[in-house]
Design a protein that fits this description.
The protein is α+β, with helices and mostly antiparallel strands. About 40% of the residues lie in helices and about 20% in strands.
Length: about 450
């Protein structure tokens, strides 16, 4: 068993040195792993269309797909105790915005959502299930290392050399590999609301008229009210989609790793029913809350629109998901992705508006290195580059490549033929180097 873990550690901890290459898209590098979920309880207009769009949305390509069977849950099934309510998180920015705008009291489930999510994650052993997927756990409770090996990006010659030497640093390599692979496993739990604009526009109109009647002279009131009505007419059409995403990270530290391999690991050749039950019931594995982000979008329709209303709603839902994920990546360093440069002269990469780029953003350029002694991968910053304002790729999700709905506008615009984003920053970079956005 010890020798098996040693070789396994060597496999998953080694890597390839990124050189300039003709096919940068083939570059292998370690990605974070992601599972996405949706909170299903809310009743709102077009709910089925919104949830269908979420379930059918393309998986974020900058992450490894680490989906497990649990894709949704109802927070009503996870009520809080009085003690848990006393330690509630502050309401989300989106919830505070809704309260201030409509002067309504949020329901208790919305206020308690972060803690209800944590209660769900703990009760349903979601962290255990994420770990089980990492090690391809079978019905008999046994594990293997195939997925970890595949995502670890290993070098066969290095593995053979270290295995022959029976290297004494195998345990350290295994631990380090765990930190760079399993410890970068995330869950994003999405909460959607889809509301008709007319009630909100009407509430704003009525409140504005009340204020106007109190502060505007009678001779000017009629003109003021006509202006207020005009704003109402412009803003009452269509819907607004609201999304809040909660980000959690799997905890995989030395204590967790050591306990797992010592007390819970089951090899196919040595099945142990007691260890199987121990893994299923263990509280060892945990998910920690990283943070949340919110985004809103306006969905409007037009007689000239070539898509159906359902198609526009589906497209807007996917766009808002991308928007929230981009915000999470910008705000939290741990969730940021690395992207390979597509070319070095000019400097380009296959990221764009879907990742929240508008022009002017700065990125670190990282050179990937492999320690010839340990096989461990490190990333060294070798410079910075900046997104050119007029050369941002519009890679937002769009089933029809010729038309793009404009948020808040019923018209459409033609897509440009740009298929990558261009950066400025010198000529010392080459295809395959990795870039990571700077705050």
């Amino acid at each position: 068993m010890k020798k098996h873990l040693l070789v396994w550690g060597l496999i998953i901890s080694s890597g390839t040195f990124a050189q300039a290459q003709d096919k940068p898209a083939d570059l292998k590098f370690r990605r974070s792993s992601l599972h996405t979920m949706v909170i299903e309880s809310d009743k709102f207009p077009k709910k089925e269309i919104v949830l269908k769009a979420f379930n059918n949305a393309p998986f974020p390509e900058k992450y490894n797909d680490h989906q497990i069977s649990q894709k949704s849950f109802n927070p009503i099934n996870y009520p809080l105790t009085s003690e848990e309510k006393a330690s509630m998180y502050k309401p989300s920015k989106l919830g505070a915005f809704a309260n201030g705008l409509l002067e309504i009291e949020m329901d208790s489930v919305s206020k308690e959502m972060p803690l209800r999510i944590e209660k769900y994650l703990k009760k349903e052993k979601i962290a255990n299930k994420l770990v089980a997927k990492w090690f391809d756990r079978q019905a008999d409770g046994s594990f293997d290392s195939k997925l970890v090996e595949d995502r670890g990006v290993f070098n066969a010659s290095f593995l053979e050399t270290k295995a022959a030497q029976n290297s004494s640093d195998g345990e350290a390599l295994l631990r380090t590999a765990g930190e760079s692979l399993i410890d970068n496993t995330f869950i994003v739990i999405n909460k959607f609301n889809f509301v008709a604009n007319e009630p909100i526009a009407r509430a704003i109109r009525d409140a504005a008229k009340t204020v106007a009647a109190q502060k505007i002279p009678a001779m000017l009131l009629d003109k003021a009210n006509k202006g207020i009505d005009a704003v109402y007419e412009k803003t009452k059409e269509g819907y607004s989609i609201w999304a809040t995403s909660y980000l959690y990270k799997l905890v995989w530290d030395k204590t967790t790793s050591d306990t797992f391999y010592k007390d819970l690991w089951i090899d196919k050749t040595a099945l142990d029913p007691k260890k199987k039950v121990a893994f299923d019931t263990s509280d060892l594995f945990k998910l920690e809350f990283v943070g949340e982000e919110s985004a809103t979008g306006l969905v409007t329709f037009s007689l000239s629109e070539k898509r159906t209303e359902d198609q526009i709603i589906e497209l807007s839902t996917v766009r808002i998901i991308d928007n929230v994920y981009a915000k999470l990546q910008k705000k939290y360093d741990v969730f940021k992705t690395k992207t390979p440069l597509y070319s070095g002269d000019p400097i380009t990469a296959k990221i764009g508006k879907k990742e929240g780029l508008e022009g002017g953003e700065k990125f670190d350029v990282l050179e990937q290195n492999q320690d010839p002694k340990t096989g461990l991968i490190t990333y060294k910053s070798v410079g910075t580059i900046k997104v050119e304002k007029d050369a941002v790729w519009d890679n937002t999700f769009n089933p029809d490549d010729t038309l793009v709905p404009v948020a808040g506008n019923v018209e459409t615009e033609n897509k440009t033929n740009i298929d990558r984003t261009t950066f400025s920053g010198g000529k010392k970079f080459y295809a395959g180097m990795l870039i990571k956005q700077i705050k």
